[in-house]
Design goal:
Length: 159
């Protein structure tokens, strides 16, 4: 006698597929909404999360070409050594959009929150990347970053 076959799709998988997808950005913002104290000392982090959340919701095609460079934050000495060995460079911009527009190779964004200013290393990177054909922008708020991204992606694709 042949045993009973399981359906191709389990009930658990079906339930999972039916649930609303929550991105890591949306989850982080929901947690912040529930606990506003999380923003203390993390303003730049949440500004960047807001930008990525907006991109994912409103410009999925651009979001697919966007990534963050995790240069900030507290890490163990071992992790920091590993990251440098893997090629991490101090001062590299926070966000990269790898889409050519308006004659530029791509866009780089350095997020700043409050009274924070660009470091010497960040100024150096922004200058070198600009010289190499990248559109570089210092954003003082999520709204400013989003507007700059909209302007950048509206440039002629081939310059």
């Amino acid at each position: 006698m042949v045993g009973k076959r399981r359906p191709a799709r389990s009930k658990a998988l079906k339930r999972l597929e039916e649930r609303e997808f929550l991105s890591p950005h949306a989850i982080a913002l929901r947690l912040l909404e529930k606990n506003p104290d999380l923003i203390k000392g993390n303003g730049e982090h949440y500004d960047q999360v807001r930008v990525l959340d907006w991109l994912e919701r409103n410009m999925k095609d651009v979001y697919r070409y966007t990534h963050a460079t995790p240069n900030g934050g507290l890490r163990s000495k071992i992790t920091a050594i590993k990251m440098v060995a893997e090629g991490q460079k101090k001062g590299y911009p926070d966000l990269s959009i790898d889409l050519a527009r308006g004659g530029y190779h791509g866009m780089r964004i350095e997020m700043k929150h409050g009274f924070n200013r660009l470091t010497t290393e960040q100024i150096d990177w922004m200058s070198r990347l600009s010289d190499a054909g990248y559109y570089c922008f210092e954003a003082r708020s999520p709204e400013e970053a989003i507007e700059a991204i909209k302007e950048y992606v509206s440039l002629d694709e081939w310059g």
